[in-house]
Amino acid sequence: MKTTYLGHSCILIETKGKSLLFDPFISGNPFASNIDINELSPDYILISHAHQDHVLDVESIAKESGAKIISNYEIFSHYNAKGFEGHPLNHGGKAEFDFGTLKYVNAVHSSVFPDGTYGGNPGGFVLWNDEGCVYFAGDTALTMDMKLIPMLCPKVDLAILPIGDNFTMGYEEALLAAEFVNSDSILGCHFDTFGPIELKNKQEVINLFEQKGKTLHLPAIGNKIEW
Ligand code: NI
Ligand code: MN
What we know:
The chain has about 230 residues and is an alpha/beta fold. The chain has one domain (about 1-225): Metallo-beta-lactamase, Chain A (4-Layer Sandwich). It contains 6 helices and 14 strands. It has helices at about 50-55, 60-65, 75-80, 150, 170-180, 200-210; strands at about 1-5, 10-15, 20, 45, 70, 85-90, 95, 100-105, 125-130, 130-135, 160, 185-190, 215, 225. Strands 6-5-4-3-2-1-14 form a 7-stranded mixed sheet, covered by helices on one side. It has a 7-stranded mixed sheet with strand order 7-8-9-10-11-12-13. Strand 2 (about 10-15) and strand 3 form a beta hairpin. It is globular, with a radius of gyration of 16 Å. Manganese (II) ion binds near residues 51, 53, 139 and 167. Nickel (II) ion binds near residues 49, 51, 109, 139 and 167.
């Protein structure tokens, strides 16, 4: 699997010949001005919850690419009513796709569209196939439910976790989350985009993970990690 960090919580994963775009928020992110949303052309757009900093570019990218939208039932229905195709999931449910198995898991957060439309309950995703297993936590607090993931899914090779604090867990809790899901490799997200989630002392944070035998990746926006 190849993973490209597109800023904030937006991640592109390429696996089994398909490309999956998680939580597209690019055109509103001044740090991601090097990314052209028209060049992404994903096969699927996966949405963890309905907040603007996770859905801003969904419609324009889905229109351009014809990408199918996968999210909770309420978010899927919101886009389906506008003519977009896709697949609804809900918490605890998994389904088979042409890219592998996808499970929608619990997150502790909130979920409402920018215009006030109900966005269901927020979640995260676990994606696996014979190329590996990745956990995309979405916006969440640290939660004991994360301990269920190793019991229900294959070994997590990469955990994509929010580390910016204020609206989600901070990096100290993300380190515990990595232990809960039993992953040694972490891609940090949801930091620096706005003032309240600025991550200071990045090298110290990376060192803290290293002391616990874990690797925290903080790639530049647009950079790819292969694993
Ligand atoms: Ni949020
Ligand atoms: Mn957010």
